[in-house]
Specification:
Strand content: under 5%
Length: 176
Amino acid sequence: MVRRPVAWVVAVVLFVEAFGIAALNWFLGVVVDRQDMSLAGLDPDVMSVSSKIGGLVFGGYFALCGLVALLVALRDRAPAGLGRILLISAAVVHGLLGAFAWGLVGWTAFVFMIVLLGLIVLLLMTYDGQSALGRPADAAPDGGKDGDGSPADDSPAGSPPAGGSPVTPPPAPTTP
């Protein structure tokens, strides 16, 4: 019920954040280029270009995470493989950015980062009980059969079937 709207919100916010990060770093690169000042002897052109490239890479990373969230929203299936790893890494990045934002930017940026961290974790957790095919995680695959066609049960080989009594002979008496 809440899975798809959360996935949509995460996708939209990650796309907006990707654009914002790329635009902010591009702007900072332009400012450094126009100031024509060096920092500790670094070339201003190198600082400008590296800021622009860093913004594009980081913005691309958030856009890719937003694409994963968008696919989750469209398909209504749990992210798997690389998509799940990307969303987990985005949650970690937002946690770290929130910690840095508290000291450097202020509490409003911290709240934004932590809210987005919570949304990503909620997205991952709401799909956690569902496997890739839409079944509950504890359901047996292939209609209750193992890969070899035998019934899938976790009981040892000699245990009785469900609802039946064990058919084992009594233990043999031991002599001292």
